[in-house]
Amino acid sequence: MVDTPSSTLLPGRVTLRWRIGRLEITPFWVLMGLLFVVAGAIRLLTFARGLPYVINVDEPNIYTTVQGWRGLFEGPMLEGYPPIVLWVSYGVQLVTEAFGHTGLASTVFVMRLLAVGYSLTTLILIALMARRVAGEGAALLAAAAWGVSTLITQESVAALADPIGYLLLALTLYLALVAAQARRLRTWCVYSFLVGLVATLAKYPLFPVLLPAGLIALYVLLKEDRKRGLLYLGLMVLATVAVVLWLFLGYHVTRVFGQTQFATNSLKQGISVATFTAMFSNLKIAMEPIGVVVVMAAWLIGIAAYLYCARRDKPRLKLLPLALIIFMTVSYLIVSGLFTTTLVRPHDVYPVTSLICVLFGATVWQISQALTAQRPSSLSNALRWLPVAVAVLAGLLPQFIATAQYVQFSQYEDHHVAVRRWAQTMLDPGWVIVNGDHVRTFNTIFGGIQESKWFPWYKTNTIEEHTPEEWRAQDMKYAALEEWRVSALQATEAGKHYFDKLLLLRRFKAPPDNPGLDTLFYRLWRPQVGTTYALTTPSESPVMQINLVGYDLTDASGSAITTGAVAANDDLHLTLYWNAAATPRLNYSVFVHLSRFDSPAVLAQVDGSPSLPERPTSTWDEPTETIIGQPFVLKLPADLPAGQYRVMVGMYDSGSGQRLALPDGTQEIMLVTITVS
Q1: What range does the domain containing 328 cover?
Q2: What is the pTM of this model?
Q3: N or C end of the chain: which has fewer CB within 10 A?
């Protein structure tokens, strides 16, 4: 067995080398560069997913805790939480605010961007560890497994402690491997231990990362140099005591136990059958980012291949780094079993996935060695590539395809953002009833979307507990409801009658990967008068249809004009409700005319956009949307004689003057008759 890592992707091949000045480049580093670019592109295309809405419910807690430290937030905080990510968030908040970007979304954006860097650095460390165990081929497979995994992509770019933990675990173990394999670099075990302490401050359950460095220092003490060994162990003990004292006396870490009762109960019970059950469950979770069946098959066949190669004196995995990685994997799984016997959170288990990637790449390499013939031939050359091809096709390719789909989904606007920005543009501020998925949509602090209009919200999953009239009496104006809940209610006669009283303003479709989260946004009352007028657009091809579905007619005080009786010099306030079956190509204007029954002469008029300036008709792109028009004020002439008059409305192209027509060819709608007394 060779003591140094293989410099070729597979044995028996001469490695190409290119020199640029003093820099030497091999195919391994070229391929690593390509992997780095692919993994980086994946993460850069997905890290901002959902923003400015913060999907992850844990990210706001870190933000508000730091805000509390700064005296800017009063409310529950993460007492005793691992401090590293909080310190990072503190620094990010100061920097982003210095550049004029405030709020949760800005902080989360930068922290996720930093997490991209953590994840890519972890990828490099995984490759370096696998290279020390089995050479360059194993390194590329291990790095690819981490780089293209969908689950790892999702978790490793979160504004949480986890991406930092993944990086620090990999760095700690890499330093320990170097210290274990190179006697002249035994000092690195101290560096490994110090990085491990920092890792523990990032995620408390990572404390097993301290064990490999401690074992190396103990080996130096017992087998190599007693004085140096005592020095290493002494430094480790001093650093540990300092960190523990600070955690318990300065940082009050004990407060976190009150918030993680499941963990303290498990620790009190100690190691039990439940611990090992949880450990194997967590092992399964840790393998899922690559594929449980693929990893288990690689390991089992790899063990057989190792034994075969040992008998045939073929290249084998390096036992010392392999043993340290397996020891670290088992140690962390035992600890995770203690902490997760009653609650499993995948991102708490994924730190060990970095080591599973190393073991996966190493065992595939070992299988390849077993298939390498003593006398190479075309068949043997093809056979030794077979394990790599199977690993790529069965493990990495499905992950890459799933990740590519995830990248595509990440480009869609989050439906929470769509709802909130639409409300900002189209609605007057008011209370919103929310349920399920929209609990944080209007919550600036914990949802992240900052807009100028304030929409207070009330959470309930049973909107039917009050009638629409009762909700309005409590100042409620709108409701943002999950469509599946509405459909369940409308399946009953009472539910159908309930929603007939509401005005559906718009349906918001969730991203394709969350099809069950479609949203229906209602106003809690309908227009004063419902109508069914359809105006067509003859100047467009194909012909479009714009529907006038209702109107409100009120006086200056806001009271509904129900009898049609008004006086000269009164103001008529008219709000029109529109719907477009398809998106119009042109931006149309609305006219409102007053005329006598017996004469087409216009006695009073007002023209304008049918909706707000931000929503011209060319943006009416959702067939389910009811456009609440901007109010028109039609002022009656002071000398208007008593009698009956018509209020006529219509649409026209302001560029050509051409009007839209009703199906019978009429170019205006007689909306209402009024009587001037």
Answers
A1: 24-410
A2: 0.88
A3: C
